[in-house]
Amino acid sequence: MDQRFETFTVLINKISRSIKKIKNQEMAEYDLRSVHVSCLYYLYSLGSMTATDLCEKCEEDKATISRAIDHLERNGFVCRRSGEQRRYKSPLSLTEKGRVVGRQIEGKVDAVLQKLSVSLSEHERIGLYRSLSIISESLEQCANDSL
């Protein structure tokens, strides 16, 4: 029997769980979870963004990002520019505390990517990302076709 489905889904789930575990372990001292880490990473690396922008970058739904932003605001990691009438359209920026943690996150991301690059050649890494992109696009199309 063909085991491709089981192998594929198990490996993808293991990768996803490992990424979340790394994010959660590394940021536990700040009471940050995986989605918070993603928000801080993108705000640090790309600069000011709206909640809508973060939804797209983090591949999370509006409710998840809204809760994450509320947590990050309450704990002094991000601030909103005042004057915007619609909260979701209001640009978010990192506070000094957020920039410090963002720098740490970027360093940890670089360290993990460096560890991964030891196991794969540049050619293999490019092929892997290309394959993952093709798989992602194909699965998204399948999901949309079944609606």
Summarize the structure.
The protein is mainly α and about 150 residues long. It is built from 6 helices and 2 strands, in the order H-H-H-H-E-E-H-H. The model has no long low-confidence stretch (mean pLDDT about 90).
Helix and strand composition category: mainly alpha
Largest sheet: 2 strands, antiparallel
What's the helix count?
Answer: 6
Give the helix proportion (percent range): over 70%
> What's the count of strands?
2
Average pLDDT value? 89
Walk me through what this model shows:
This protein is mainly α. Helices cover 71% and strands 4% of the residues. The protein is built from six helices and two strands. It has helices at 4-26, 34-46, 51-58, 62-74, 96-119, 122-145, and strands spanning 78-80, 92-94. It has a two-stranded antiparallel sheet with strand order 1-2. The longest helix has 24 residues, at 96-119.
Features:
mainly alpha, single chain, 6 helices, 147 residues, globular
What is the topology?
Layout: H1 4-26, H2 34-46, H3 51-58, H4 62-74, E1 78-80, E2 92-94, H5 96-119, H6 122-145
Antiparallel strand pairs: 1-2
